[in-house]
Amino acid sequence: MDLKYLFRPSTMAVIGVSTSQDNHPANVIYNKNHLRYPVKTFPVNPKGGILYRDKLYSSVEDIQEDIDMAVIAVRAEYVPGVVEQCIQKGVGGAVIISGGFAESGNLRLQQRVADIAREASFPFVGPNCLGIYAPDYVDTFFLPGERIIHPDKGNVGFVSQSGGVLVDQMVKFAGQGIGISLAVSIGNKACIRETDMLDWLDQDLETKVIAFYVEGFEKGEGRQFIKKAEQCSKPVIILKAGKSKKGIEAVSSHTASLAGDYRVFSEIMKQYCVAEADNEYELTCFCESLSCYPKGINGNIGIITLSGGHGVIAADACELHGIALPGIEAETKNIIKEKLSLGIRDIVSLDNPLDLTGSSTDCDIVTSARHLSRDANIDCIMALLIPYSPGISTDIGAKLSQVARNEGKPMIAYVPNEDKYNIIIEGFELNNIPVASSVEGAVLMAKALMRCRPC
Amino acid sequence: MLKEDSKNIIEKNKSLGWVLEPDAKALMKLQGLDIPEFILTDSFEEADHFLKRIDSLVVAKAVSKKILHKTEYQAVVTGILSSDHLKREMMRLKQLDGCENILVEQMVEGIEVIIGAKNDFQFGPVIIFGIGGTSVEIYNDTAIRMAPLKTDDVSSMVASLKAKKIISGYRGKAGVNMEVLTHSIVNFSLFVMEMETDFESIDLNPVICTRDRCVIADARIILKPS
């Protein structure tokens, strides 16, 4: 199966547009793509005629041009016939947004569609899904553009079994300035499943991090997925729903009762370096930090803070997540102390967290970050930058980014997510340094980098 | 590929749905895993002869197709040293439901761990390792990995336990022999892969680990319904 026609289509047919309801999902999809995306879009309805002053095709086969992808939004019982027409026409793949299949008990109908498609090597997403959002290419979400928040184009590929979770997560990504390379809601996943998406996103040049929202795998599919994740050249993140113990019946062996389904899932993810996010917030943080730093760390963090309180909060959160704050070498301390401004030299706390106080300046922070990075005990720097004191300039983000690039150790920053500090945030993010909007978030970003340590 | 003898043992127990302890241990032995010296008999004389030859503590267990969880039926007696004690307990065990034979084996003392396997719906065979004994479900200090395992997986499993210090040795007490433990778990994981189509879950619990051995003191294999 070649998925390029689905994710990078030049031409698209939207099958099932309504001649009477402007809010029909197919009409929403037709309008947004026709008006705002480069993909050439053709509306299809058996009635034919004219729609929005454009030609309405009575069948996909009536369209003169080759069609890369079809969005199918007709009633479930008509889907097999429409899929057959698409295959006949030589369409490259489909997104079946129609519901009324396995999710409502019509497993046989879904199987029929899947069989027809498999026979012809015809790939499709769905049914019962939102489909594909590929920034700058195509958007099959049947949600009006003015209602959803689109993240910028970026490097996170996100695949979700649930369309609702996908859209909601996109809002969260947008809020954190995380960009998307491709977002796909795979719905009932009758054809394209997580493993297929992992293959596609692994070779997709625009994707650097691959994230999944998964409810469950089929028999043996978990093993297939994890084997692919092991081979994958990019970090893989997973958010699992359905963790509760229901369904574990009285079992006749200790092992079966100790190894509940979710425990098995979670431990195997760790075994194979897949970063499992506990919740949507972690997922967001993991995506941002792993898109900047695909390589792992051991988890020995050096914290630079301008406030004692923030240092303590970060230290507590680090302990909770199994992140170590090693002591700083005496030599490192001496070098830093020597280079600090006279005004703070005697009031700073040269431990880990390294508290430079609110009287510090850009120069003190940059010096500390540089020499802390050179300390052999430390493999990641966390800079808690509360930009309230006058010694801190708007250039601090860009300046610290240069330190991180020169020293070669990952750096994670915390800066309050307020418009007036955007110049600092961008100073980091445009230089590929992740910025969290809370201390906890910064710690979670560090946790993501420890994904290859199973214990 | 499973050895012919192993296949026969599994086949023999299919109708029962699980593998009797002596057979389960025979399977483990065929795989090269360590089991205690034992005798399977219903005769006190033979058992007593074994006790005298072993000249150390033994364990006596009822072998019954009706008893899957022996502890719950008081079907295991540990720490037998004298002929009188052995005789008394053998007589009692024989009265238990469905008891066909008595398994008398050398009692090995050391750190009790559980090595188990489950045939998971999504991931296939997985291995569980942790602190063993009859209270394993209460402590649930275990780690899980997908089979087959590599040697690094075993070290990471040990390191992830709360009780890792018990394994490595604590307050003057010897720990387990990591080389033997690692070899046993990796070897068991290979066996489990070969058993994939036959088993539902396996408990080797306890496995007694000493400074030089990891001995399977009890083994229970639940087969897939055919």
Short description:
The complex is a heterodimer of chains A (455) and B (226). With 455 residues, chain A is of the alpha/beta class.
CATH hierarchy: architecture of the largest domain in chain B = 2-Layer Sandwich
Mean pLDDT of chain A: 93
Number of domains of chain B: 2
Largest sheet of chain A: 7 strands, mixed
Global shape of chain A: elongated
What does this protein structure show overall?
The complex is a heterodimer of chains A (455) and B (226). Chain A contains 17 helices and 20 strands. Chain A has helices at residues 4-7, 25-36, 79-89, 107-119, 163-175, 194-203, 221-231, 254-258, 261-271, 280-292, 308-320, 330-339, 342-345, 362-373, 396-407, 422-429, 439-449, and strands spanning 11-15, 40-44, 49-51, 54-56, 69-72, 94-96, 124-125, 131-134, 138-139, 153-160, 180-185, 209-214, 236-240, 275-277, 301-305, 349-350, 354-355, 380-384, 411-414, 435-436. Chain A has a 7-stranded mixed sheet with strand order 9-8-11-10-12-13-14, with helices on both faces. In chain A, strands 16-17-15-18-19-20 form a 6-stranded mixed sheet, with helices on both faces. Chain A has a 5-stranded parallel sheet with strand order 2-1-5-6-7, sandwiched between helices. In chain A, a hairpin with a 3-residue loop joins strand 8 and strand 9 (138-139). In chain A, helix 6 (194-203) packs parallel to helix 7, helix 10 (280-292) packs across helix 17 (439-449) and helix 11 crosses helix 17 (439-449). The mean pLDDT of chain A is 93. Helices cover 35% and strands 30% of the residues of chain B. In chain B, strands 1, 6, 7, 8, 9, 10 and 11 form a 7-stranded antiparallel sheet that branches. A 4-stranded antiparallel sheet of chain B has the order 2-5-3-4, with helices on one face. In chain B, strand 9 (199-209) and strand 10 form a beta hairpin. The radius of gyration of chain B is 17 Å and the shape is globular. The mean pLDDT of chain B is 93. Classes of the chains: A alpha/beta (455), B alpha+beta (226). The A-B interface holds A 216-223, 226, 251-259, 261, 263-265, 267-268, 271-272, 454-455 and B 18, 68, 114, 116-118, 120-124, 126, 128, 130, 136-137, 140, 142-146, 153, 156-157, 159-160, 200-203, 205, 220, 222.
